[in-house]
């Protein structure tokens, strides 16, 4: 790849997968899979386009729009649309690459993709955001469809934006089909979809707790970063199950519990209302209940915690912060965000797991721990195909089953391909990477996307 410009986020995601494969027996047992790795690491196609829209003053504005259609061996491309000023091809390739294997771990028929634009919704009026969404979808609609590519929301794209985009697609293509997920309940959306990533994260960690012999969520102190959709519903589910939530954050700073207090459902709902208005946590009048730390992430300020759930954005736990979490007694780290930990932090967690065995910190990667969101997107696609709606209870039960399968798929794959001494916890990052990769590689081989002379 030396002839290509540097893509640090994508290279990090690629190297994490390669490290897991190289430090397992997979290539010893199946050396031909090295060829599959070469093929799967290059997107099937990348679409880049300009988005021209008009601001409230009548001035022309232009942004870059993207869709990375990375792999369709298991089904239509599936992955979110991100509207944020940081969006570039490296970030979207990293997210799309992760999405391939995350979707594979759900057990549903979904390929991997990601898209978005370098449009910043902050500071824009509702009318400007709507005009941008219409202009964006007019271009993107040429490349997606219910059996081709089914985007969803991501950072900067809530149900409101999905509605504007879906309406534009319907008018442009003269089709009413399940082309987007996260839709309104009256026009094809699924119950539990907004909650799914946060709920699924908690369900996944529940299996970690049980396997570790650490009991239930009751009484656990939980540090959460972020205050968006994932963090909100993870916090609410933790509280429902008896845990104490001691932190939330946003890009401006962190709120941390003082003393023995906890976030309550009312606190979380107040924060959610602020975020709908695109306001910072500084607007939350908590009456001194929490300590606000401007410009900080919560990890080094939460005191003793049992569980850490990074749920904001990529690379939000550094090596130093990982050391702080371990020193604070943290035993479980599971990513609600995509690639929430730096590679140095992951290496530290994995070294601690090997050294301390049954007393170690146990790390779960986002491609497994946060796959609940895309899983319910897949369930929404299934409901759209059948022209029916399932109840909240039906969707929630299916979500629980998918997260259980994702956990045990990673756990058992690690046991199969990664040699470990007695008493050592299996590597969930290695097991999840290998399990997802093997599913995709096998499908690609059977469809003739790669082959090898043996």
TrEMBL record:
One of its GO terms (molecular function) is glutamate dehydrogenase (NADP+) activity. The keyword Oxidoreductase applies. It comes from the Eukaryota. CDD domains: NAD_bind_2_Glu_DH. Gene3D superfamilies: Glutamate Dehydrogenase, chain A, domain 3, Leucine Dehydrogenase, chain A, domain 1, NAD(P)-binding Rossmann-like Domain. One of its GO terms (biological process) is glutamate biosynthetic process. Keywords: Acetylation, NAD, NADP, Nucleotide-binding, Oxidoreductase. Belongs to the Glu/Leu/Phe/Val dehydrogenases family. PANTHER family: NADP-SPECIFIC GLUTAMATE DEHYDROGENASE 1-RELATED. This is Glutamate dehydrogenase. It comes from Apodospora peruviana.
């Amino acid at each position: 790849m030396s002839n290509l410009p540097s893509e640090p986020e994508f290279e990090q995601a690629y190297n994490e997968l390669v490290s897991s494969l190289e430090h397992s027996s997979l290539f010893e047992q199946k050396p031909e899979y090295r060829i599959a790795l070469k093929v799967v690491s290059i997107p099937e196609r990348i679409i880049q386009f300009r988005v021209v829209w008009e601001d409230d003053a009548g001035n022309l504005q232009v942004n870059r729009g993207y869709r990375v259609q990375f792999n369709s061996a298991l089904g239509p491309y599936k992955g979110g649309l991100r509207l944020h000023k940081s969006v570039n091809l490296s970030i979207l390739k990293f997210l799309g690459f992760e999405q391939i294997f995350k979707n594979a771990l759900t057990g549903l028929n979904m390929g991997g993709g990601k898209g978005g634009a370098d449009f910043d919704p902050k500071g824009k009026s509702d009318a400007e955001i709507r005009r941008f969404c219409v202009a964006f979808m007019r271009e993107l609609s040429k490349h997606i469809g219910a059996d081709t590519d089914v985007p969803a929301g991501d950072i900067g794209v809530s149900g409101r934006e999905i509605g504007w985009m879906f309406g534009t697609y319907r008018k442009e293509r003269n089709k009413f089909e399940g082309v987007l997920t996260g839709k309104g309940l009256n026009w094809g959306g699924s119950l539990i979809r907004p909650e799914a990533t946060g709920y699924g994260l908690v369900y996944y960690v529940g299996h970690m707790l049980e396997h570790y012999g650490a009991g239930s969520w009751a009484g656990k102190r939980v540090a959460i970063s972020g205050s968006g959709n994932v963090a909100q519903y993870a916090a609410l589910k933790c509280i429902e199950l008896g845990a104490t939530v001691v932190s939330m954050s946003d890009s401006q700073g962190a709120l941390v519990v003082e003393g023995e207090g906890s976030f309550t459902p009312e606190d979380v709902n107040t924060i959610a209302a602020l975020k709908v208005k695109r306001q910072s946590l500084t607007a939350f009048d908590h009456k001194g209940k929490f300590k606000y730390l401007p410009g900080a992430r919560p990890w080094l300020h939460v005191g003793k915690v049992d569980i850490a759930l990074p749920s904001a954005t990529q690379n939000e736990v550094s090596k130093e912060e990982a050391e702080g979490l371990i020193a604070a007694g943290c035993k479980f780290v599971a990513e609600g965000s995509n690639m929430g930990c730096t590679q140095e932090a992951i290496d530290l967690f994995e070294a601690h797991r090997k050294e301390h065995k049954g007393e170690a910190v146990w790390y779960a990667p986002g491609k497994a721990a946060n796959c609940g969101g895309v899983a319910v997107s897949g369930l929404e696609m299934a409901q759209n195909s059948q022209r029916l709606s399932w109840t909240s209870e039906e969707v929630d039960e299916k979500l629980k089953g998918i997260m259980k399968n994702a956990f045990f798929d990673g756990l058992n794959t690690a046991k199969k391909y990664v040699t470990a001494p007695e008493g050592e916890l299996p590597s969930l990052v290695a097991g999840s990477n290998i399990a997802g990769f093997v599913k995709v590689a096998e499908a690609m081989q059977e469809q003739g996307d790669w082959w090898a002379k043996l």
